[in-house]
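Take just one protein record:
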Amino acid sequence: MGRPRNDPNRAATPERILATAELEFGAAPFAAVRLADIARGAGITRPSLLYHFDSKEALYEAVVRRAFSALSAALLEPLPRESSFAERVDALVDRYARFLAEHRWFARLLLREIVDDRGPGRQLLIELLEPILAMVERFLSKGARHLPTRAVVLNLGATTLVREASGELRGVLWGDLGAEADRALARSMFGLE
């Protein structure tokens, strides 16, 4: 059997692998995810997957790095020059909540890595999450010098993370609470209302 014909509407193989791997790693712990399942979901064989990513660890790292890069880009979207502190808080809260709502697999993966001290992404979290936290902290501390900004950011971030990672419990526990509630909580924690 020869190679399939190129379809200009079909994503490139590495992209299909990463997209499938995101969902698989989001759905189950690292040890439970099988490369054969990812390959099947991407429409290729396991040897073809290993041609692009030489191990499950390398694929996992690529997935996590790509997600953190996308999160960082979402948070760094420019704001109007003259935006107030309240507008900056709202924008960051909205961007983070929107990102996690659109990438629930990442919310589940991130929460699992935070809780499981044996996960393969532990070092990646230290490397990739801390700079984002520092960036957000610097951005917000310009308007809230009297608060422990990192503690506020972590509390707000954890609330949204758990909500978006909770799957079918989301509606039961949070109802229709979303970004509006996150903004209200952030404004309250920063003493803006």
